[in-house]
Fold:
Amino acid sequence: MVHWSAEEKQLIASVWGKVNVEECGAEALARLLIVYPWTQRFFDNFGNLSSPTAIVGNPKVRAHGKKVLTSFGEAIKNLDNLKVTYSKLSELHCDKLHVDPENFRLLGDILIIVLAAHFTKDFTPACQATWQKLVGVVAHALAHKYH
Amino acid sequence: MVLSASDKANVKAVFTKIGGQAEEFGAETLHRMFHAYPQTKTYFPHFDMGKGSAQIKSHGKKVAAALVEAANHIDDIAGALSKLSDLHAQKLRVDPVNFKLLGHCFLVVVASHNPALLTPEVHASLDKFLCAVGTVLTAKYR
Structure:
């Protein structure tokens, strides 16, 4: 069980409270597909991913980004019970989606950069450290049911 | 992994824009890295890790200078950083995984200081460049 200090919980809540899940999710997923183009392998049915402009404007990317970050919000609500909360999602990613867990780490780091760009100096080193821990824990929980 | 002409142009533009702030960015990159990835502090047991640490400032300056040098000689990063590569292989022997952590924190610093600069395309180019630098610095490890 991961322990979260009061300060860490506060740093998570204060950032999350100001996040536009749709915008942030869309941007994070788009950047993942642009910066690490091999991640496009999971999205053959998304249509036009031929250029950064196409990716950023792609409605399926936006929608899926929103879905992913909404799920991340669930994780934040269940920090003390993450493995159970993500149990089915983990099985799905392994058995049906066949996603290498490394991709969860890549997306987590991209999310951090998107948050940094959004919050600028308010995304302090302490804030970043807490969120790095969070994305790491989420990635770990998503990979937990892999076999 | 190859840096395209537009990658090179993007990277050069970033460092031109950053200009004199590079030293400050270097220090903040280290500060964030030590904070977010405490295991990286094991390479600096003698450092004062507090905010405003003179050692972090000074080392950040060195790191920034190396990145600037690499950007200025982007067609031959291996050549430009050859001595630094020798140093890391023979003396410093920093585990290769840590260069990714440093690179990531540098991106966070750029994003937090100048979000408009870090478009998705520039983000991709800069990430590739930082990977290339890490690769060069660990190239002679074995």
